Structure formats: structure tokens, C-alpha cells
Amino acid sequence: xxxxxxxxxxxxxxxxxxxxxxxxxxxxxxxxxxxxxxxxxxxxxxxxxxxxxxxxxxxxxxxxxxxxxxxxxxxxxxxxxxxxxxxxxxxxxxxxxxxxxxxxxxxxxxxxxxxxxxxxxxxxxxxxxxxxxxxxxxxxxxxxxxxxxxxxxxxxxxxxxxxxxxxxxxxxxxxxxxxxxxxxxxxxxxxxxxxxxxxxxxxxxxxxxxxxxxxxxxxxxxxxxxxxxxxxxxxxxxxxxxxxxxxxxxxxxxxxxxxxxxxxxx
Length: 266
Known about the structure:
Blueprint: E1 2-5, E2 13-14, E3 30-36, E4 39-45, H1 46-58, E5 60-63, H2 69-72, E6 84-87, E7 92-95, E8 98-99, H3 101-114, H4 118-128, E9 134-140, E10 144-149, H5 158-167, E11 171-176, E12 179-184, H6 189-200, E13 205-208, H7 215-220, E14 223-226, H8 231-235, E15 242-244, H9 250-264
């Protein structure tokens, strides 16, 4: 069995995404799992951390993220270091911390054959963005592009218009927090997870995620979970084998790990 989970806003949460809606005295104890520029950035509940430690020791647990390898390297999850991890939305398959070059070559070949070039998409992103709300623009691992925006100033129709433009060119768009991602459609977490399942001989895949970029992962899994927040929840995305949790924020992360552990135990 392979257990693949998205990280940001699924297992780990920034202070802005914690959604601590209970009285302060009842708030859970938190464990910092990421530091950026010498400041704490991402958290789990201590209960979730203990459950994940157990999960990582007893199963093939695969962190599955759109983050670059450098960004993923800042995260220190509880438990033993995973044998496998997925970065750049499936572009990099890490084995003992090192990117598998054969996998990356296959990915690049697939993208070159079926999608508009990254340079074209990046140019359009920058040209279409308004400096009034564009904070940063980045290319990730020479595979996809994203913008960091001021959500309060981002026009309601801008992402919809970008999505239509990108779709015609074989790309998909996802809005996550302050980031607008433009990702080639064949660049998927599910493809990388399927490769890990093949290598490990796993007969079943469990998955969790919160965003549009996780939909393919959840759809391909035998069983999945999504939190009560995020793109999938906001759009009402569902599937018969995917549990839509009521919990939001860091409480959802805890429930996801608990549910995965329960499912893995049979």
C-alpha cells in the first residue's frame, strides 16, 4: 500500500491557514515543521505529528507536493525520512532524497510532445498580470510557472480567463492562497505515484489533497480524503471513493493522518 499526501494546506499549515476557530485555551499544541529565513513557517498539531511518525514507519508514505525540491527540503516531517517523495507536481521523483534522472527525462519528453512551451505561458502570465496586484513571478524547476499575488486586489474573472487561455494550450491553472499556478496538464502527481506503486509492488493507493492540482491524484487513488477547505471544497469536487472531511485547517491535517493510519491498519 502506498499512502501519498499533498503537504501545504493538507498536512502542514502556515499560521494564516491554521483555522484555529476554538477558544485560545482549547487550541491544540503545534509543532513547527518548516523554517524559512530563520522564522517558523509551517505547522502540524502535535497529535498529527505523532500519528504521522507511526504512519511513516509502518507504510510507504510519500510526500507529494507542487513545491520545488529546494522548497521541499525546508520541511522536516516527523518520523523516518521517506524513501520516496514527489516534488514539482510530479516532475521530480525523489529516491532517498535524489531526483531520478530517468523519470525526469520521461516527464520532459511528455511535456514537449503535448503542451505549449513554458516560455510562451510564462510570457503570457507576466503580460496579463497587473503590477497593482502582482507581487512576484517565478518558474519552478523549468517545468511550470506561478505568480504570487495580492488576493484582495486580484480581479474575480482573471483566473477564469487565464484558465480558458491555458486550457487551449494543454495547461491547467490553480489558485492556492496567494499563488496562481500554471502547470502542464501531463505534469501530474498521479503519474509519479503510479510509478512508485509499480516499483514497490503496491496493490492499493491512498491519497489526500486540497487543491485542483490534487484532483488527479485523488481520482486515481483507491481511496482518498480532502479537507473542508481549499479549491476542491470550494468547487464542491467529489468522487465516490473520496471522503470530504468537515474539518478545516490544521484540524483537517490531523484527521487525514488519523484516517490514513486507520485505513492502512485494515
